[in-house]
Write a structure and sequence with these properties.
By secondary structure, the chain is an alpha/beta fold. It contains 4 helices and 9 strands.
C-alpha cells in the first residue's frame, strides 16, 4: 500500500545551508548523501512525496534538480519555494489543498503567503529550524485581520530528522503540541 509523505527545504547542493541552519554535516556532499539515504530509508518507489519548496540550490551543470530527483524513491509533487526559480524544479504549483488523514490540508512553502483559509492545518516550509508548529492569524480577502487563526506545521527537514514525514506522524506531534498549549486537539 502506498503512502504519502511531506517534506520541505532539503536544499540539496546548497553548501551554506549547513551553516545557516546548523545542520550536523561537515560537507555538502555528506549532507546530500545523508538526506538521500534517509529519504530512501522511508519512502518506497510507489509512495508520493509532496516537497513544499526549496528542493535544491541553483541548477549546476552536473547537479540539477533531476540529478537529485533520480536518486530519490517515490513520485514527487513539487510546490514552488522561494529558491525554486532557477534550480530546475519545474512546477507551477504555488499551493495545493488536499484531504488526507481525515483533515483538510493546505500545502504551501511560505507561511506568510497564506491568506484566509478554512483548512484544518497548513503544512509549510521556509522557516527551517525556527518552529515546528505555530498558530498564526489569517486575513480575509480585504486584508483585514479576522479572529480565526490557522495552525501551521513546518514539514521542513530541520524539524523532522532530515527526512520526509507521514500525515500520521504530523498529526501525532500536532495533537501533542495542542495539548501542551491547552488548545483543543483534532
Amino acid at each position: 500500500m502506498s503512502k504519502y509523505y511531506f517534506t520541505a527545504d532539503t536544499h540539496f547542493g546548497h553548501s551554506n545551508i549547513i551553516k545557516y541552519c546548523h545542520r550536523p554535516f561537515k560537507t555538502i556532499e555528506e549532507h546530500d548523501y545523508r538526506l538521500i539515504q534517509l529519504w530512501n530509508s522511508r519512502v518506497k518507489p510507489e509512495d508520493t512525496v509532496f516537497v513544499l519548496g526549496d528542493f535544491c540550490y541553483k541548477q549546476l551543470k552536473t547537479k540539477t534538480a533531476k540529478f537529485y530527483e533520480d536518486q530519490l524513491n517515490g513520485k514527487i509533487i513539487f510546490v514552488k519555494g522561494n529558491h525554486d526559480s532557477n534550480n530546475g524544479v519545474k512546477t507551477c504549483i504555488q499551493d495545493i489543498r488536499i484531504r488526507l488523514g481525515g483533515k483538510n490540508l493546505l500545502l504551501i512553502h511560505r507561511p506568510e503567503d497564506v491568506g484566509y483559509t478554512d483548512v484544518d492545518l497548513v503544512l509549510c516550509g521556509h522557516v527551517h529550524q525556527h518552529w515546528k508548529f505555530k498558530r498564526i492569524p489569517t486575513y480575509n480577502k480585504t486584508g483585514k485581520k479576522v479572529l480565526f487563526s490557522a495552525d501551521f506545521c513546518n514539514v521542513g527537514v530541520d524539524q523532522w530528522n532530515y527526512m520526509p514525514v507521514t500525515i500520521n506522524e504530523i498529526l501525532r506531534e500536532y495533537n501533542k503540541w495542542l495539548r501542551e498549549r491547552k488548545f483543543i486537539s483534532l
